[in-house]
Design brief:
Helix content: 55-70%
Number of helices: 2
Strand content: under 5%
Shape: rod-shaped
Distance between the termini: 64 Å
Structural class: mainly alpha
Largest sheet: none
Order of helices and strands: HH
Length: about 80
């Protein structure tokens, strides 16, 4: 069964931009029948935002001085 391809709004790219991988998956499943190219691009954007977030978090954690495994907690 073939679905006719319709152009969808570019605002769908905001979903993976703000929600990362989860937003990309949601946008993919909503857009996959109407605009498959935009659906794949939303999924790729979600994956890219997730990877960028992980890299950003690693850079922040490694740049904070005094972060060691003990956290100076006595139990």
């Amino acid at each position: 069964m073939s679905f006719p391809e319709k152009q969808r709004s570019n605002a769908w790219f905001l979903l993976p931009f703000f929600l990362g991988l989860i937003g990309g998956i949601i946008a993919f499943f909503i857009l996959r029948r109407n605009d498959p190219k935009k659906a794949k691009n939303c999924l790729f954007l979600g994956i890219t935002m997730m990877i960028a977030g992980i890299i950003f978090n690693v850079l922040i954690v490694t740049s904070v001085p005094g972060m060691d495994s003990g956290f100076n907690v006595n139990i």
